């Protein structure tokens, strides 16, 4: 009952924030919502744009990951509430309608998830467990994204150097673990090799970024130029505290995760590792979220995503709610300071977009591999054939399905086809 209440409230509050043009989850929607606020875009066009930008990600990205781990990927709910909040007209009754529909959507998501899990038990080919393989490569390859971001921003040579050092550090961590060199008393301490490599990569990325100097006369005082927009965000800080606390609490209950990497780790029971991955992602996304918020006056319902880190490391759900609310309050209050910091270090400011692009490219490759592996577990041989063909045909068709979603969607389609073939007697149940 408590789990359902958390998800319903998150859906309701997030839909209201979108309806009132206060916050949207989709990074690409914030500038568009700002256009509507300033009167250059009609509400109807805004709603249709939100649907076009987010619906495919909900169906092709959020839902497949949610089903693969029985943990709600935050994209599943907040991309949906973006659509709900922006499609419903912003009138006197708009917020009430958005809250009702958003809450209903949250309830349907968590209730439907339980129903889906039970349904799989009755299928000839239960492909829920193989779907877990979709996220397996993501966990291992995630440590490479800082090197890719460095290569995209600071030359390929520096990217290769970052990658090589991270790889060496990872193998040193494996060696230390195998030999049991680290221990407290009689307890051997095991390092997370991917986490160690990720930290090293992030150190390289931010070292290069902070060494990038501002050209003469090129500095821009973001905080001063967009002071009114920063004020509008601060004015709504109470709403952010509510949803921040709710999401931190839901994460603490292991109901949801903020990204595919931490979701996959949680599915494997590695909560501490999931927290480290979530922290690395949050640090990397601060420049992007801060810059778009300051420039548009529209925030993110998850802030800098640090609330997921709170949820994963705080031992008690109600403590997580309180700390999550305080963390997002501090983020909002520090926006002006962060803007001035980004002005002083343009390399750090510019790294936000490169980090996002690097993560996207890495996830495209990792999820394609994971989707192919999952598909082949469901239907040996046919799975590889189908996902490869599905990917290539999607490319030729102009990518109607985003690359990141091809692997997970392909695995689901293979599972459906496998059940049909078994029912028709054209395929034996894989052992």
From TrEMBL:
Pfam families: YhfT. It comes from the Bacteria. Keywords: Membrane, Transmembrane, Transmembrane helix. The chain crosses the membrane at residues 6-25, 46-63, 69-88, 95-114, 134-152, 159-176, 188-209, 237-258, 278-310, 317-342, 362-393, 405-429. This is YhfT family protein. It comes from Tigheibacillus jepli. The lineage of its organism: Bacteria, Bacillati, Bacillota, Bacilli, Bacillales.
